[in-house]
Amino acid sequence: TETNQSQCRLSMNLNPSTLARVIQDLVESLEGHGIRKLLILNSHGGNEFKPLLRELHGKTSVQLFLCDCFRGLTADVKKTIFQEADDHAGEVETSLGLAYFGHLVAQHPDGSLAADDGLTAETRLDAVNNGWVSITRPWHLLTTNTGAGNPHAATAEKGRQLMEIMVDRLSGFLYDLAHAEIDARFPF
């Protein structure tokens, strides 16, 4: 879902409607194989799947659940781990990158990150700048390199700490979900 990165070299896009259709097709396939409970994990802030769950409700026997890894699952702990619980390629995402695929994170020979401070341009509209009104963000106008968060306080340890919380919370949920009986009032 990256139409707003179309000005960035080699960016690729799936429209939200295409992505929704892919998920719908997968749900139909899983339903045909007898799967009745499905958790969709979302770790991309640009993907909004709640409307899809509403659309599929009543059209499938699969009970759908959605976990947004950064907004819902870890929102309550990010401020205790990170200096800035920021956005795109900021401290949170970079910490996870350093922890699990550090060789792909651009660094100078001294180990410091090869990144700017993630400054973003303000719009001309106070309501947008204050978060009262939202827009799709054209990244080539918003940032210098699509990083919209300061990554410099990121560490692999912070990434591992956040992942441990995610795994703990998700594993507990998946255990409960696997053992929950589906009846007329499920999941209530």
Descriptive notes:
The protein is mainly alpha-helical and 188 residues long. It has two domains: 1-72, no CATH class; 74-170, Rossmann fold, CATH 3.40.50.10310. The chain is 42% helix and 6% strand. The chain has eight helices and two strands; from the N terminus they run H-E-H-E-H-H-H-H-H-H. A two-stranded parallel sheet has the order 1-2. Helix 5 (91-101) packs across helix 8. The longest helix is centred in the last third of the chain and has 24 residues, at 156-179. It is globular and about 55 Å long. The model has no long low-confidence stretch (mean pLDDT 93).
Topology order in helix (H) and strand (E) letters = HEHEHHHHHH
Point out poorly predicted stretches: none
- Mean pLDDT level: 93
Q: How much strand? A: 5-15%
The CATH top-level class label of the largest domain: Alpha Beta
What is the tally of beta strands?
Answer: 2
Largest sheet: 2 strands, parallel
Q: What would you report as the Rg, rounded to the nearest angstrom?
A: 19 Å
Strand order of the largest sheet: 1-2
- According to CATH, the homologous superfamily of the largest domain is Creatininase
Structural domain count: 2
Known CATH architecture of the largest domain: 3-Layer(aba) Sandwich
Q: Give the helix/strand class.
A: mainly alpha
Gross morphology is globular
Under CATH, the topology of the largest domain can be stated as Rossmann fold
Kindly, what is the distance between the CA atoms of the first and last residues, rounded to a whole number of angstroms?
33 Å
Residues in helices, as a percent range: 40-55%
Helix count equals 8
